[in-house]
Amino acid sequence: MTTPKTIRLQCRDQILTSHTSGLAPAYLQANLLILPAAYAEDFSRLCRRNPVPCPLLAVTDGTPKKLNNGILVDSSSEQGFDIRTDFPRYHIYNKGKLQTKSNDCVEEWKDGHVGFLIGCSYSFESALVNAGVPPKNLLLGRNVSMFKTNKLMDPAGIFVNCPYVVSMRPYRKEFIPKVREVTAKYDLTHGEPIDWGFDGAARLGIENVAAPDYGDPIELEDGEVPVFWGCGVTPQLAVEMVGHLIEGQVISHAPGSMLVLDVTYDELREYANNSIV
Amino acid sequence: MTTPKTIRLQCRDQILTSHTSGLAPAYLQANLLILPAAYAEDFSRLCRRNPVPCPLLAVTDGTPKKLNNGILVDSSSEQGFDIRTDFPRYHIYNKGKLQTKSNDCVEEWKDGHVGFLIGCSYSFESALVNAGVPPKNLLLGRNVSMFKTNKLMDPAGIFVNCPYVVSMRPYRKEFIPKVREVTAKYDLTHGEPIDWGFDGAARLGIENVAAPDYGDPIELEDGEVPVFWGCGVTPQLAVEMVGHLIEGQVISHAPGSMLVLDVTYDELREYANNSIV
Q: What's one Pfam family the UniProt record gives for this protein (chains A, B) (predicted)?
């Protein structure tokens, strides 16, 4: 099997420049946000206040090659890890607007930039498969459907009036208790659904579950209802909402194109039980 | 000055049976929820997923006289601490309905009950005074106004479709940045406001800011707008919402009648930086 490190090196060499869904399935993958230092404290606080859409896994520690949480990736060698190159694709934002797409952000990374790794729901998809309730997007070989909602995160500093983004997977009603139970334990990667059913869609302000704002459409068959989870695209929408207040460039991964970490969910859980992330 | 321990002993002796606002102002006070063990894991998870309305400070550790967080109260002697007697007043719920009010819950506490202490916004009111932006409820000598909202917590286990309760303090618009800044650091006791202004009231589904669901009404003068914080009454409303699913009695403090702890906010913050609460 291809190791996480090999995948990161393939990204760094720009051999892998597409999505990472299904790669090294035992290992955690992470969403990215890189901000100028002046906004790092506000964003940390946004994550701590809203751990369901924004579960904070780690923060860079002064350089793009080191995290403050040593077990997530190998930071011990030049080969190990570089946040500027080890995602397949990056989005560069200026004043909240997407400016450039790129396969690295070496030129954009400045002293004083701070990188945040956010948990990703890929982590629980294999658990759903193993429990006999596989997500339809996996069965169809598509990206998950993602929606903007009208549910606001609790604000922190400049991050005011920023809505949740949710991922949606269709399930028959009778499977919802099982689906909730299986994903509940993945609290560092969005945990159990935040809402479900067509009444849930209405509560979240989602008018048409067949027309996602991000990712691929997934048809609902008769008897299926939508089930919604917090989604790691939420920070990118936050940057679009308040970007006019941010001086300097902001960098994210391209949706679906994640960083593959060196740990499994259970290893991360064990680590988090013994420390503050 | 009366010490926290003296106040707790006055509660235990049923000398103090009213509210605790303004008592031992340097020290933290805490909200209470006591649940049968079968629901403790769901409620812990509800708190971890929704730290703004439900900032979890500590959980009892097998007995009503010991917490899993040693520095919050003196658990070292018989005199030190007893969760069943050291609040001024208790509310006893059955199937989500308020059944009895009492000055202790010694008879109701059963083996297997688990007590949760939740942060309280009293903790930041003196900081607002010191910053020159005193809350009007303090100036008027009234209880704070509290409202049910239409903002739902992210669900956990049996706790589904449970709305935020918020506290409201009126401020002139130009003071909002200062009020946000002062309370932001109190992230273990609700932190900065979750919304503000009359548009904020509308977003939260609050139609009349002069008619609170709990506490006292506070008039808004010309130029003042409502400012809303997460509130520790949220867990009690959660118990009312899903109480029909709970077998056995649930116990809370009476709103405003808190437990006075042996630590200041800064001591708690220091402790939390060094451990998982």
A: D-Glu_cyclase
Strand pairing of A250-253 and B90-94?
unpaired
* Interior/surface letters B17-49, b for 16+ CB within 10 angstroms, e for the rest: eeebbebbeebbbbbbbbbeeebbebbbbbbbb
* Closest by Cα among B19, B204, B248 to A150: B204
What does B36-78 look like in DSSP terms, one character per residue? EGGGHHHHHHHHHH-TTT--EEEEB-SSTT-BSSTTSS--SST
Strand partners, B84: none
Residues B130 and B224 in one domain: yes
Q: Given the structure tokens 């970490």, which residue do they identify? A: A261
* A119 shares contact with chain B (CB less than 8 Å): no
Flag whether the ipTM exceeds 0.90: yes
Q: Do B152 and B223 reside in the same domain of the chain?
A: yes
Residues of A in Cβ contact (< 8 Å) with B179: none
Among the partner-chain residues B152, B155, B192, the one whose CB lies closest to the CB of A156 is: B192
User: Which CATH number fits the domain that encloses residue A176?
Assistant: 3.30.2040.10
Q: Does some domain include residue B237?
A: no
- The lowest-confidence range among A22-26, A175-179, A180-184 is A22-26
Summarised one tens digit per residue, pLDDT across range B117-176 is 999 988 899 899 999 999 999 899 888 899 999 999 999 999 999 999 999 999 999 999
Question: For residue A122, what pLDDT band results from cuts at 50, 70 and 90?
Answer: confident
Rounded CA gap, B3 and A41, in Å?
A: 35
Residue with tokens 């923060």: A59
- Could you tell me if B269 lies within 8 Å of chain A, comparing CB atoms? no
Closest CA relative to residue A187, chosen from A71, A277, A61:
A277
**Is B230 near chain A, with CB under 8 Å?**
yes
Q: Which of B148, B157, B113 minimizes the C-alpha distance to B236?
A: B148
For residue B11, give both structure tokens. 């509660």
DSSP A129-148: HHTT---HHHHHT-PPEEEE
**A194 contacts chain B (CB < 8 A):** yes
